[in-house]
Amino acid sequence: MALKNNFLDVFLSFNLWKYISNKRKRQLGFLSILIIISGISEIFTLTSIAPFLEILANPQSKIENNILRNIYDLQFSFLSLDKLTFMLIVFLLFLTLSALIRLLILYLNDFISALIGNELGVKTFSSFLYRPYEFHLENNTSKMISLIVTKIDSAIDSIRSIINIICSAIILISIFTTLIGINIFITTATLASILLFYLLLALILRKRLGVISKKRSFLIRSQTQSIQEGLGFIRDIIIDNCQNYFLKIFTFNDRSLRIIDARSYFIAGSPKYILEVLGIIFLLVTSILYKENIGNELSIIPLLGSIAFGMQRILPVIQQIYSSFVILSTNKDSILDLVEILKHTGKSQEFINASSRKILKFEEEISLEKISFKYSNNPKYIIENLNLNIKKGSVLGIIGKSGSGKSTLIDIIMGLIKPQKGSVKVDGVELLFGENGNTKQWFPRISHVPQEIFISDNSIQENIAFGINKDSIDNAQLLKAIKNSQLDSLIRNTKYGLNMYVGERGALLSGGQKQRIGFARALYKGGDLLILDEFTSALDVKTEESLIETIKNLKRQVTIIIVSHKKSLLGFCDEIIELESNC
């Protein structure tokens, strides 16, 4: 991985910060101001408890603080509160104010972190959607899903933890500064012991947390993959009665992930209970030693009470810092994976406004010159030194055995994958691949019917007018596409017509109906180049013949490329090429 294997480097070098919007940054700035105010409120709270406890122990004692004494004298003329009641009210007011500010910080922390998580999720999904087709051929979808769904949650937890560390550090400094003013010896000795305990614990667990982070990142991806495969192959799983096989895989991954999370939570939370006991013991011992030195029993009560109250406020703060450190450590590899993907967000955005750019001119021919292509996992070229000219308005047939490169050739013509050698030209203009290329200007010219038709869990009309808002669908063009693809009988025979929902991946449709929806989708889009890849494999003879007639009627209106195993389908083609397998 290009980034250093150190989580702090990710944030200190603003690798994640730069993907956060300016609006969220301003909100985080406001949150920082609240955190500082919270620290100041802690100072006032601790400052007010010492005189309260002193008056409680000795009612004859005076209010030493000048500001509090002036306020007390001012209120005496119309409220007539005694010193103890006055100091109790002051203490409770500061305590309540401090609690309300920290409650507001907690709410804003969670709220802003959630919104940042949403932004990062959208940017990550956008990065995947706008990546070149070759990226998707080489990467597992389960990895992408785990990044978007689960690892974004890790990012939210980590951002929340960073804010918690900053907030807790400011509050810790505020409380520590105030307690030093009360008694420097007890405060320094107690706090130093607590910090040393957590520091040693963090150093001891550092390597273990690193291992947990790597395992957690791997198991998140494995868990997603086991779910995806188990549900994606459900028909074969039921037929082959192999549910237990996939269940065992999921059980192992899910159990391992949850055990790792349980260990992380234990490591994060367990020191609190140990330190509560040790802290009280240490505070009592140091207080006894201090009492023996000064020999004044009355003065030790407000002192001990103030220090105890301060430490009661400090312990959760230090525990918060430590548990946040554990969360950051266990999420480190997930965050690094996320940042690695977000690095490409800016590049992928180059594809966003493709529809608003100039469409590539196509009036004469598509030419392939000395094209050679091989996949990264295969040393042999699947297509080698191929030359081909496709005239505008012609019909080209492509046949060949399985694995001969028919679909690969189609992907090259469409500009989805880049050949290692040679060039593809449209009217003499070479297709340029990559972020600054012109392939996105070529895509609007193409209508494609693939071998496997993707069907979304939406209505028939939304599946035909794919990727178009329902309110923006051209009904006349939609009905024409339905008629030419022989789908009109299906529409008539369903209760809901065009609004019939087809189920996940078209579960409520037959294979032939899915293919006809794919064909209707291509016809609805229009375009100058119609590519049909084994589009009749699931059709009955009568429907196949009818669709072939529709295609014949499109001849000369658009350029057509047909990929098929059946030579009988290619009789009306102007040219037929046969690809031979190089495997």
Automatic annotation (TrEMBL):
<feature type="domain" description="ABC transporter">
    <location>
        <begin position="366"/>
        <end position="582"/>
    </location>
</feature>
<feature type="domain" description="ABC transmembrane type-1">
    <location>
        <begin position="33"/>
        <end position="286"/>
    </location>
</feature>
<dbReference type="InterPro" id="IPR003593">
    <property type="entry name" value="AAA+_ATPase"/>
</dbReference>
<dbReference type="InterPro" id="IPR027417">
    <property type="entry name" value="P-loop_NTPase"/>
</dbReference>
<keyword id="KW-0812">Transmembrane</keyword>
<feature type="transmembrane region" description="Helical">
    <location>
        <begin position="84"/>
        <end position="108"/>
    </location>
</feature>
<dbReference type="GO" id="GO:0005524">
    <property type="term" value="F:ATP binding"/>
</dbReference>
<keyword id="KW-0067">ATP-binding</keyword>
<dbReference type="GO" id="GO:0005886">
    <property type="term" value="C:plasma membrane"/>
</dbReference>
<feature type="transmembrane region" description="Helical">
    <location>
        <begin position="273"/>
        <end position="290"/>
    </location>
</feature>
<keyword id="KW-1133">Transmembrane helix</keyword>
<dbReference type="InterPro" id="IPR017871">
    <property type="entry name" value="ABC_transporter-like_CS"/>
</dbReference>
<feature type="transmembrane region" description="Helical">
    <location>
        <begin position="28"/>
        <end position="53"/>
    </location>
</feature>
<dbReference type="InterPro" id="IPR036640">
    <property type="entry name" value="ABC1_TM_sf"/>
</dbReference>
<dbReference type="GO" id="GO:0140359">
    <property type="term" value="F:ABC-type transporter activity"/>
</dbReference>
<dbReference type="InterPro" id="IPR039421">
    <property type="entry name" value="Type_1_exporter"/>
</dbReference>
<protein>
    <submittedName>
        <fullName>Phospholipid-lipopolysaccharide ABC transporter</fullName>
    </submittedName>
</protein>
<keyword id="KW-0472">Membrane</keyword>
<feature type="transmembrane region" description="Helical">
    <location>
        <begin position="186"/>
        <end position="205"/>
    </location>
</feature>
<dbReference type="GO" id="GO:0016887">
    <property type="term" value="F:ATP hydrolysis activity"/>
</dbReference>
<dbReference type="InterPro" id="IPR003439">
    <property type="entry name" value="ABC_transporter-like_ATP-bd"/>
</dbReference>
<feature type="transmembrane region" description="Helical">
    <location>
        <begin position="161"/>
        <end position="180"/>
    </location>
</feature>
<dbReference type="Pfam" id="PF00005">
    <property type="entry name" value="ABC_tran"/>
</dbReference>
<dbReference type="InterPro" id="IPR011527">
    <property type="entry name" value="ABC1_TM_dom"/>
</dbReference>
<keyword id="KW-0547">Nucleotide-binding</keyword>
